[in-house]
TrEMBL record:
Keywords associated with the record: Phosphoprotein
GO biological process: phosphorelay signal transduction system
Ranges of residues in domain Response regulatory: 4-120
PANTHER family per UniProt: CHEMOTAXIS TWO-COMPONENT RESPONSE REGULATOR, STRESS RESPONSE REGULATOR PROTEIN 1
Residues that bear 4-aspartylphosphate: 53
Protein name listed in UniProt: Two-component system chemotaxis response regulator CheY
Domain of life per record: Bacteria
Organism: Rhodocyclus tenuis (Rhodospirillum tenue)
Lineage: Bacteria, Pseudomonadati, Pseudomonadota, Betaproteobacteria, Rhodocyclales
SMART domains (UniProt xref): REC (SM00448)
């Protein structure tokens, strides 16, 4: 059984690109369109890693990570923020919320997989 990764992004084309990258590397993939959707999908389901966008409707990525970390079942799940946001301010907010890595779009598949591999070790 491979490891499961949740992708949270309001862009279906971006989810598709990330999903293909991860599936080719042998990961199982779950998808959510925003933070609210992600929290609903995570009701007790085991995930090993989360990749989340920052700017999304309903619930943005930083708020989502904060909410995720409040749940004891997901407190230690590593989160990668995958976003067009590169400002130090946003990165710090992401880190404070509990994100472990920050990958800026457009991303190189190898760069993303490198971050994933490192966090899943």
């Amino acid at each position: 059984m491979g490891k499961t990764i949740l992708i949270v992004d309001d862009s279906s084309s971006m989810r598709q690109v990330v999903k293909i990258t991860l599936k080719q590397a042998g990961y199982e993939v779950l998808e959510a369109c925003d933070g609210k959707d992600a929290l609903e999908k995570l009701s007790g389901q085991r995930v090993h890693l989360v990749i989340s966008d920052v700017n999304m409707p309903n619930m943005d990525g930083i708020t989502f990570v904060r909410e995720l970390k409040k749940n004891p079942a997901y407190r230690f799940v590593p989160v990668i923020m995958l976003t067009t946001e590169g400002s130090d301010e946003k990165k710090k907010a992401g880190q404070d919320a509990g994100a472990k890595a920050w990958v800026v779009k457009p991303f190189q598949p190898q760069q993303l997989l490198g971050a994933v591999t490192k966090l899943l070790m």
